[in-house]
Amino acid sequence: MATGTGRELTDQQHQAVTARGVSVALSAGAGCGKTFVLTERFLAQLDPAGAQAAPEEDRGPLSDRLPRLGELVAITFTERAAREMRQRIRAACRQRVLSAPDEHVDYWLAVIRELDSARISTIHSFCGALLRAHAVEAGLDPHFRVMEQAQADTLLFELIDDELRRRLVAQDEAMIELVVEFGLESLRRMVAGLLDCRAQIDWHAWREVTPEQLVARWETYSREVTIPQLLRTIAQSPHARSLLRIARDHAPDHPAMRDRCQALLERLPRLPESRDPPGDLQAISQSARVQGGGGKKAWPSEAIYAQFRDAAKGLREAIKKAETEVGFDAEAALPAAQIGLRLLSATRGVADAYEAEKEELAALDFSDLMIRTKRLLTAPEGEPLRKQLASQIRLLLVDEFQDTDPLQVELVQALCDRMIERGKLFFVGDYKQSIYRFRGADPHVFRALRQRMPAAGRLPLTLNFRSQPAILHFVNALFCEDLGEEYEPLLAHRPQVAPEPAIELLWAPDPLPEERTGRSQRLRRRDADWI
């Protein structure tokens, strides 16, 4: 299929652009044309050819049968990406003016004239505009200003220093212990890290929590979440699957080895529901070995024996690593709980001071824009406004979804309302390209929301236009085992041109022990001077 730019769509791109009636979660590998697809999907919503195809009895003026430009919202990750998308849409519209039938030319010219007002922006700009339009409902000064990230970071740094200095001058025992334990530089970073996720922290609820109560919560989480996930990972690992396949299809003729295979077939599939994880792991580890099992002669072939031996070794190593994590020592965890609550207390003081300073300045930072918008849209009293806003959006396109965080996902869900799975959402991401975890981005939210979409909307974009096959073979080998069955291998659009090998690994060694020690001593001297 050719586009208005004259460029042909691949089958995958065509499917993503033309899918209707279902929301689309596009897993787009690097160099596979995701920005091109986003642009074409945006323009496809405005294409007058689709409106002309409507049943004759439903036809009215062409302008009445097309979605208005304001009904399309495109959210990108950076201002630069937003500008690029707007420029691409403008260029594509100009191509359509040149190639469109005479009756459509005025329509595309009108779209070009309105493009400057199109809702193509970053999530922060979108939230800022929404809050200004509904400042009264959000409880904000309509003339609030948005602090630049550098200004917000500087203010936070100053407030962190002020809070730490105030507590140290007051001989606050908890603060002194934190400084002794971590040093000032590390403590600053830890407080700053907690402030980055302050939207997820209920400060009031944590005021009365004791260390013992926190340890009890950890123990419950370990028992109900962490350990089952760990056991599931082991039971579904490639080593475990290989052992089960061999034990099922190629039973050895040695009695001891046959008993071990039977034990693996019985225990491994049930491991995630184990009531005695240490005992079951030890039993599986004992069964996953070939010593004393008749050697190579006990197996149908030497190749099968080698496969079982290697898989058994890999499984035993995974179990050995996991054995230290399946037990929970409440007494050993208590000091960590005490430190954690002290750190939370110190951070709460900084957070309170930061909020007071912003209120005095009538300012919001980038995180506030999303926090206030989420509060505006998801509070019970905000339901009428949320439904009104959702009804005004025909299609919400979100780029770089792997770099979103849970808060942004909640905003997307609110804006789509009940149509989140039925055609209102089009989002693009690549789990492998998540690079903003230091800002709170969580690539797992992309995978989770993608799994929520109907199967017809979970589409891949894997034909790579950028790299030669040798590069893509390396990338596929690097990620396929880690991501397992969910991994979608990249395919090369171009042949191999450069000579192989095409990959060079450059190793960056860790500093020598004496270098690390010297740096640590310098930091401690600096902290001592600061105190």
Features of the shown structure:
531 residues, six-stranded parallel sheet, two-stranded parallel sheet, globular
Strand content range = 5-15%
Shape: globular
Mean pLDDT: 86
Strand order of the largest sheet: 3-2-6-7-1-8
Alpha-beta content class: alpha/beta
Record field, number of beta strands: 10
**Major beta sheet, specifics?**
6 strands, parallel
Task: State the end-to-end CA separation.
Answer: 68 Å
The helix tally amounts to: 24
What is the CA-atom radius of gyration, in angstroms?
29 Å
Helix proportion range: 55-70%
Unreliable sequence segments? 51-60
Structure description:
The chain is α/β, with parallel strands linked by helices and 531 residues long. Helix content is 59%, strand content 7%. The chain is built from 24 helices and 10 strands. It has a 6-stranded parallel β-sheet with strand order 3-2-6-7-1-8, with helices on both faces.
